[in-house]
Amino acid sequence: MIKIVKLSTVVLASSFMVACASTSDIDRLQSNIDSLSTKINSVESKTAEIGAKADQAATNATDAAANAAAATAAANRAAATAEDTNRKLDRMLNKAMMK
Prior knowledge:
Blueprint: H1 2-98
């Protein structure tokens, strides 16, 4: 009987020690989970920020393409006008030379 009581006492004391150790482990794990959760939230906010910047960059690129197209059209009009002016000057020069 005394052996059973001693064995029960040892088992009970061991289980309390293990329970304390596992509570400590659970607390440490919870701390790690909280830390990871904070990091995930940080990554999510940075991802949203990067997404917004990417959208802005796409808008800027579209605006730049539109401006480039407008500049090309203006340059083509200017070239056509210069060509017309050169033809007129050539005709005037030819008329002047024939007189």
